[in-house]
Design brief:
It is a single chain. The radius of gyration is 17 Å and the shape is elongated. Helix content is 43%, strand content 0%. The chain has 46 residues and is mainly α. It is built from two helices and no strands.
Length: 46
């Protein structure tokens, strides 16, 4: 068995690249940024 301990920079992260190419963004002032809105809700629970 061979264990490859090289950095993750040699791997192909196609799914991550595709996600970064099509971000879901919106205006946070109007509550349109879904990720930021979810983050704010999570912080309120604490």
């Amino acid at each position: 068995m061979t264990i490859d301990l090289r950095s993750d920079t040699v791997t192909n992260h196609q799914a991550m690249r595709e996600t970064m190419a099509r971000p879901r963004v919106g205006d946070d002032v109007y509550g349109e940024d879904l990720r930021l809105t979810a983050s704010k809700k999570a912080r309120r629970r604490f």
